[in-house]
Amino acid sequence: MTQRFYVTTPIYYVNGAPHIGHAYTSVAADVLARFKRLDGYEVFFLTGTDEHGQKVEKAAAAAGLAPQDFADRVAADFRAMADRMGISYDRFIRTTEPAHKHSTTVLWEKLAAAGHIYLGHYEGWYAVRDEAFYDEEELATKPDGTRVAPTGAPVEWVREPSYFFRLSAFQEPLLKLYETHPDFIAPSSRRNEVISFVRGGLHDLSVSRTSFRWGIPVPGDPAHVMYVWLDALNNYLTGVGFPDTSDPRFAFWPADLHVVGKDIIRFHAVYWPAFLMAAGIAVPKRVTSNGWWVVEGEKMSKSLGNVIEPGALVDAFGLDAVRYFLMREKPFGADGSISHAAIISRINVELANDLGNLAQRSLSLIARNCAGILPDRAAPTEADRALLDAAAGLAEEMRAAIDRQSFHDALEAVWRVIRAANAYIDHQAPWALKRTDPARMAAVLRVLVDVLRVAATLLQPFMPDSAGRMLDQLGVPAGARDSAALATPLAAGIALPAPQGVFPRYVEAEA
Ligand code: MSP
Fold this sequence. Notes:
- By secondary structure, this protein is α/β, with parallel strands linked by helices.
- It has a domain at 340-487: Isoleucyl-tRNA Synthetase, Domain 1.
- The protein has helices spanning 20-38, 54-62, 67-84, 98-113, 171-180, 188-199, 228-233, 235-238, 265-279, 310-317, 319-328, 340-369, 382-392, 394-403, 407-428, 430-436, 438-459, 464-473; strands spanning 4-13, 42-50, 91-94, 117-127, 132-134, 140-141, 147-148, 156-165, 185-186, 205-206, 208-209, 217-218, 221-226, 257-261, 287-290, 293-295, 336-338.
- The chain binds 5'-O-[(L-methionyl)-sulphamoyl]adenosine.
């Protein structure tokens, strides 16, 4: 039976244009989805937009548009961003879809029917920017006396009737979940943070608002709209057909992995499993959180004017180079800095030089010295064996790294093999063997093709287009590009296409 894998991105607020931080989370989830498909899994990959709430309502008002018209416009920008970044989603969900409103209404009814929702009065701090409630002790005071959330977001005092979710009843069940499922939250620094937050005690959570209208009405009490995070988190259930549990897509539940930013781990690792437990629905298997990108060391912000638009980066450097950079430059859970110089260095050193030149050198020798015909394997020497063994271990090593969301380790593993292959070609010097030992020359070139094939196959999730073009040049048939196909050697004697560079050097235009 094929195994299933359900992976999600956060759904993006439609209050502003997509930037590189959004693209990053989506690319990471996409690499995971593609890697699992490469490994033969049946994958369901969900992304989309978070369209309700006060933040979006305010942004729409500022733009002079009705919230739905504004949401339609910005949601289209997010969908275009996903397509531009090569995100291979199976469904793009929008929380204003009728299907999602229905699904969320049913979830609410289940929570209410189970006795976990009650009517009360909320009085406390709220940050519209984070769409989050904060306790007095969590706030900081700015020099001018204003109070701000730990995220720096301005807060306002809110006093209104509200429905509450009995979050306090889930402190023990949540702690038990973290204890019995140590992989539920990654990385471990975030896990510790969540555990100490929950150990500190949980208040019941305000899950409805009455002071604005842009949300899903509470069933039976339309003066209230649901708290946007309850609505938003439920996208993961709607995505696979909830409440219709006989929908074939529902077989993907529980989700294998929610990929989220470090700023929204609390919602995913505390509130979301609590809602699900309360509704009697299985909890997701893992929530993994990414660190943030800053630009040349500075936080990205509209006021600083340093917001990086993903499309502009793709125009300048090409999609695959950008995807590669994002996955390679920093550990997934850590923060990192993005700059043109850093991208150019990754392109020129690792893509153009290490990988591109290796392929180009090997393939041009085959074109020139073997009439473009793929040589057969020969009995391996010790040096051949060492390199082939390193390549043979790559799939397993990458798989383990990807399962930990350690994308940079997965790529580093590929580059260890590529660097070894560069050392091998320099040492074997096949160009010099043409006259002295043509059979050995052919054997060396075949080893290089075999190693390049492994690398290109496993790089497809990161750089689908370039890796695919490299596989074309290596003569790998379209139906033999998944990880299982690596077990079958390429047939010798086929004619390879004329080699063409896949990773050009980036040459900065003269100012
Ligand atoms: N709508 C909520 C998520 C609901 S999920 C049920 C939300 N949206 S968001 O648009 O503000 O952020 C979406 C994601 O983008 C978050 O995971 C956030 O961490 C990520 N990023 C936003 N800025 C970022 C960087 N500068 N760097 C990396 N990721 C960043 O939160």
